[in-house]
Design goal:
By secondary structure, the chain is α+β, with helices and mostly antiparallel strands. The protein has a domain of 111 residues. Helix content is 19%, strand content 28%. It is built from 7 helices and 18 strands. A 6-stranded antiparallel β-sheet has the order 1-11-12-13-10-14. A hairpin with a 5-residue loop joins strand 8 and strand 9. Helix 3 packs across helix 4. The longest helix has 15 residues. The two termini are 19 Å apart. The C terminus is likely disordered.
């Protein structure tokens, strides 16, 4: 997939020519917006294990998109309690570990609030996001801090550690979201995809089309996200993959290929698939990074980091009274991120 900058009008025309939108949802106001409940045929059967009552139950609230990214209003009624717990204790844990640094940076309010990052023990560092402000306890050991600052503290570079994760399980979480939201007449084409998702020993060989990610400078509101399913038009004029997930939240935008052997010929990738980058509205002038996203690895990843640099309009630094005994977190840098902030880079 080509993620080079494209003319937005040309890219928009490409997607209008080749794709339709069987599903779309945007959460704008988590507190007051009406819930959208996804229902299936009766009698109810689980979309993932294909079982019905009395062997399974549907008592738990099943979120079609993980709560960790802020979903409060998109609910599925065709995910059974067993599968809900299977996903929650498995692949969604890996997604949570992988996505946590940028959820912190973007101020994503999950089930337990906005995540924080900390390390170095009782006297170590801590990073929290509170509204439009970062609060940072620098800690005693400068060498282990996952951030550096300019002399005036207005330029701040994070290198936030990710907890261990398995890439293929992160990808499966994206796929699970897509299977959760697609209409029944689309889902019938994705039996092999569902089997791959549910197989704990499956690998990345099933995936033949790369995905893409974008980082943008300004985060969407803390409780907002948007999810869209693109499916190939019957009269598509180009040779294109059958389906993509588009997901937008915080500072991240994703275009995830959904494997569909029933509808896709096998794309043997030796070079780049020349698909234009999806024309995200806020990425035209606000884009920091765009690139292919490879989540086909099956080995546990440790020591991974997410890097990003901010430039702030103002910074407040408070230091402990030198007459007091040293205590944990001796230096606290409070950086206020206002509407005029500029992101300097990302990696």
């Amino acid at each position: 997939m080509s993620t080079k900058a494209n003319d937005c009008l040309e890219a928009k025309a490409f997607y209008l020519r080749n794709y339709r939108v069987p599903f779309t949802f945007e959460q704008i106001d988590a507190a007051n917006q009406e819930k959208r409940v996804l229902t299936g045929p009766e009698p109810r059967r689980c979309r993932f294990c294909d079982r019905g009552a009395p062997s399974i139950t549907f008592r738990d609230v099943a979120h079609a998109v993980p709560e960790s990214i802020g979903n409060r209003r998109l609910i599925s009624e065709y995910e059974c309690d067993i599968c809900n717990r299977f996903f929650g204790s498995g692949i969604e844990n890996h997604f949570g570990n992988w996505s946590k640094p940028y959820r912190l940076i973007g101020g994503r309010r999950g089930k337990k609030g906005i995540p924080m990052s900390k390390g170095g023990g009782p006297s170590g560092w801590r990073i929290e996001r509170m509204g439009n402000r970062f609060e940072i306890v620098a800690g005693e050991n400068e060498e282990i801090r996952p951030f550096t600052t300019s002399e005036d503290h207005r330029v701040l570079t994070f290198e936030l550690p990710r907890d261990p994760y398995v890439p293929i399980d992160v990808l499966k979480t994206f796929v699970k979201m897509t299977l959760s939201v697609m209409p029944d007449d689309e889902f019938v084409h994705f039996g092999e995809t569902r089997d791959w998702l549910m197989d704990e020993n499956s690998n990345g060989d099933f995936v033949h089309i790369p995905s893409a990610e974008w980082l943008v400078a300004r985060s969407t509101p803390a409780d907002s996200f948007a999810i869209h399913l693109l499916a190939r038009r019957p009269d598509a004029s180009e040779r294109v993959p059958y389906a993509f997930l588009l997901l937008s939240y915080g500072v991240q935008r994703f275009q995830i290929n959904l494997p569909c052997p029933a509808r896709d010929e096998q794309f043997e990738i030796e070079g780049t698939i020349e698909l234009p980058a999806f024309p995200w509205q806020d990425a035209a002038e606000d884009l920091l990074y765009a690139g292919e996203l490879d989540l086909t690895g099956t080995e546990r990843v440790t020591g991974d980091k997410a890097q990003v640099t901010y430039q702030f309009e103002t910074a407040e630094v408070s230091r402990p009274d030198p007459g007091l005994a040293p205590s944990a977190g001796q230096v606290m840098d409070k950086t206020t991120w206002g509407s005029g902030d500029v992101r300097c880079g990302a990696g």
